[in-house]
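Late entry, written up from scratch paper. The run itself happened at the end of the previous shift, but nothing got recorded in the book at the time, so transcribing now.
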Amino acid sequence: MPSLRKKALIGCSFATVLLPAALLAAPQTAQVTKVADQGQTHIVADTIDGRIDAVISTRLATPVETESSGVTRCSGGRTSCSLVNSLSITVGKNAVSIPDRATILLSDVNDGRIIRLSADHYELMLAGGDAAVAYKAHLFFNKNMVTRMDIWSSEANEIQQSTTYKDVSKAFR
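Output as recorded:
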């Protein structure tokens, strides 16, 4: 029968082997990146799964453009704002599929961050708007596609919209 001292040493060795793996699987703290009003901004995270790079392209909208389109894309009904032109995400060398509808209503994005939630599950969090029209867009994705997007009202701290995306590409083969 092993002595108490041997049991303690075995227990310590077991904890030493498992602890780093447990820490690697935990969600990682993300660095916040300010998003430019116009041009491209890279929001980057280095994870054990590889480098994740979200590129958000923004441009300034003109009052004439927003008034004539009939669609209010500026937060708070303003006539000038910063609109999201495009968003791309890569996980390592994999390009993530992002539905057009996931970015069409995003405007006045202030900052963003990428969080690794678990193995092959990530979140891009974008904060935008101002005061009563401030929002947080949470895009959940894996290495292949965006799977869900939630829009939260920052002031009310309530979810305003939640959209789930499914991979239906195999349905057409």
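Helices lie at 4-25, 63-69.
(Scratch paper discarded after transcription.)
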